[in-house]
Amino acid sequence: MTNDSDPGDSNPSDPNDSEGTPGSDLEGKPADLADRVASGDLRLHELEVHVDHETAAAARRHLLERETDADLDAVGKYSFAAADAEPNIENMIGAVGVPVGIAGPVSVAGGAVEGEKYLPLATTEGALVASVNRGCGVIRESGGANARILKSRMTRAPVFRVADVTEAERVVSWVRGHTDGLRDVAEGTTSHGELVEVTPYVVGDSVFLRFGYDTKDAMGMNMATIATQAACDRIEEETPAELVALSGNLCTDKKPAAINAVEGRGRSVTADVEIDREVLEDRLHTTPEAIDAINTRKNLVGSAKAASLGFNAQAANVVAAAFLATGQDGAQVVEGANTITTTDVREAGETLYASVSLASLEVGTVGGGTKLPTQAAGLDVVGVRGGGDPAGSNADALAEVISVGVLAGELSLLGALASRHLSSAHEQLGR
Q1: Do domains 100-151+268-428 and 158-245 have the same CATH topology?
Q2: Sign (positive/negative) of CA torsion 35, 37, 39, 42?
Q3: Which of 62, 236, 264, 371 is the most exposed place for a label (fewest CB within 10 A)?
Q4: Nearest-CA neighbor of 136 among 122, 151, 121, 148?
Q5: pLDDT tens digits for 55-90?
Q6: So where are the chain's domains?
Q7: Helix 221-238, helix 165-177: angle, nearest 10
Q8: Which CATH class is domain 100-151+268-428?
Q9: Hey, which residues are catalytic here?
Q10: pLDDT in tens, 123-137
Q11: Do 404 and 382 form a contact (C-beta atoms < 8 A)?
């Protein structure tokens, strides 16, 4: 992706180098623009209408530095053109740098990806990348991990008001009898998405319809929202149902929800590996029996007692770091934490079977934050940037690689707990 400013000549966001768009009535230095915002002459969010994006961001930094005594010099140093971020942010002042590390390579035998892969991880948590990398080494010595996408559905669930349960039943019957027509209407809003299912739920005088879409290589939340609105318009035309909200929280987006853990959202993906006792003893300094016991008592029994939706050790850690590095929606780490880790001692104690099942991993390789240069570079590291051939294969591959990264993180943390090296590892790394 090109940058309108040459970083070798100057920082594209340096206030001293920024001037208004030629011919603008607001030409001048960012400090002057900040004065006009402070006086009420200009609105903070309207600056890009009058000046270029770099100048607008610099003016906001000036204003904030005056009003908060914050030093925003570091925030103002970023590696991409501010205009490139326009679809991703409002009232931009700069960017936050998060260190990016690399885990791998690790061999992945997936339905959409095959071979040695690296996984970029952006995090401020010391020891995380080292932990995942250690797990990748264990998987590599075991011949690699398997990974498969079991389901792909991005959901949006509007809620309608009806008079009573009798009317609710009529609406549900109409929807079930006209799914093909709703599919035509919904898919008429997009050239990529496909409506796969519409599942009704009735609670008194409320009718929820959970629409499920195959959104190909896009994470697809916006696609699903627009398509569902068109379908809702048709339902209101043809039935007595009145749309109350396009999202009725049965989707469920960016909130802990059992429906996502059970039915899935985004990609439902699983990965597994079988590890010899010798590898565990050499690399993790533990045994199959010890890891299996900890997984049972910690990840399964402990999580059940806590009424957790995730039965795992640290899945969200890896999901969050991979999301930041590849331009995914950070808030959807909530759904990514819907992960169950299982282990089993096999071959008369000579091997350990381990798996992770991520019920609702919401990822894409096109759209959203994937267009930002640094995040696009992260996708290039995995080899999945842009649309896949066939459509959806790149996002499937990304989900499979992330799932193997999660598996690596689980193995490493369980091994550290089994060998009682968790605290000493953090101490050694100075975290």
Answers
A1: no
A2: positive
A3: 236
A4: 121
A5: 999 999 999 999 999 999 999 999 999 999 999 999
A6: 30-97, 100-151+268-428, 158-245
A7: 110
A8: alpha beta
A9: 125, 329, 426
A10: 999 999 999 999 999
A11: no
